[in-house]
Structures
1.
Amino acid sequence: MILLVGPTSVGKTCLLKRLQNPNLSSVKEDLPATVPTVGTNLVTVTSLKKTEITLREMGGAMGPIWHNYYKEAHAIIFMIDVSRHTQVAVSCVQLMNILAHPFTQTVCVLVLLNKTDIPNGMTRSELESLMRLDEVIRCATQKITVLEISAKTGHNLEKVARWVYDQNKLEESIAT
Ligand SMILES: Nc1nc2c(ncn2[C@@H]2O[C@H](COP(=O)(O)OP(=O)(O)OP(=O)(O)O)[C@@H](O)[C@H]2O)c(=O)[nH]1
Ligand SMILES: [Mg+2]
């Protein structure tokens, strides 16, 4: 199971709906309708090569209990909304808490910078300096990948699908 977390309204449910559509290159700009996730949202996506992969979104409002799911997660996706300048500090603390947790020390982590389609959003370098992301990555025990995406336009979603698929393959090879 891959765990998907991040503050409320960053676009986690939209991403899952996009990933459930196997043809990512045909994404239209209309965003799928969503409501805030109260609790958890467990979905199976059929990714590359028709592999079925389970992802569990934890709603942003569930932040205090995310840690209950770290033990069963073999990889973690953490999502940030680049258009919400005031949320960066919260995101940074949440990400550092995840990385410091004893159950996450060997998992791979994907940091998604979502909503890059919004014109006034922070650039990756602005965000990196605000969050000291390079330092966070250097000090972490986990392998961390950062991707700039838009669940709206579909930008880089095929890279997310590839990462999800690679994590699943890794998990399968460990299990056998
Ligand atoms: N412009 C833009 N809006 C987006 C994008 N992704 C999501 N949204 C919008 O962001 C809002 C929240 O999306 P959700 O997917 O419900 O957010 P969430 O992270 O699941 O929120 P919680 O379940 O409350 O934790 C919706 O109005 C989406 O239409 C994006 O890439 N670009
Ligand atoms: Mg949601």
2.
Amino acid sequence: MRGGAALALDGQAPVEADAEAPFYLPYGNEVAVFEQCHARRLAVLLKGPTGCGKTRFVEYMAWRLGRPLVTIACHDDLTANDLIGRFLIRHDSTVWQDGPLTRAVREGALCYLDEVVEARQDTVVVLHPLADHRRLLPIDKTGETVAAAPGFQLVVSYNPGYQRMLKELKPSTRQRFVALEFDFPELEREAAIIVRESGIDRATAHGLALFGKRLRALDQQGLAEVPSTRLLIAAAQLVAGGIAIAIACQVAIIAPLSDDAALVGAMQDLVAASFP
Ligand SMILES: Nc1ncnc2c1ncn2[C@@H]1O[C@H](COP(=O)(O)OP(=O)(O)OP(=O)(O)O)[C@@H](O)[C@H]1O
Ligand SMILES: [Mg+2]
């Protein structure tokens, strides 16, 4: 572990508070498990709702392991060539340019593919020989087969229940990954994250975290989307900038979540009850 002050919570492993370290508050043994996966060259799948800390975790692990991080946002137009690379025409010659996946493989980077289920199957299959013991990337267009540098690790994420399901990943893809499950932090942990990310006082952060928990319980009453830690932090940042809490909750939490008048009214009632 690198130097720097540490922040401990409820007996959890301390978190680096080094100036250059991304702030990440663990919820369990995910740091140790990920480190073992890295050491054993196992690819990792992160499952969890939007805004619960998956990207921050990968940023933290890349820092902790001293590896560069290459992030690729997946979408249904993403092709294998976008990942691997392509020939570019320069004057009267063509030159090969590595795509982000090839760069990560050569550099020994952590390669993070966000929302992997959004990518087409024919794009995802290029990951297969990289995500098992072979650790190879064949580049059909040049005839080269690149062996992954030692620090290379494939990390993918997906939001369960969001648009597409994990089952849309082929079993032959899924079964190449160790899966870490993320969820929203429990109350005290979420309040600590809000304090750290926004600079607001502990009592207000606690109130926002509690408000978030209550809103998440409204999913039974038809709230299709529940607030992420990211939204709670956005409200807290507005409060830190001098915006009244009721307005901050309205613009940063309620309005992004729903257009339904009844649900918006119920959420506003909860704000009034939470911040009298
Ligand atoms: N455990 C945590 N430690 C520190 N910060 C956290 C943690 N969990 C959430 N956060 C905060 O919440 C914000 C949103 O988290 P992040 O961007 O990592 O979400 P995500 O799971 O990657 O979401 P998405 O699926 O939408 O990409 C972060 O920028 C950070 O401020
Ligand atoms: Mg993310």
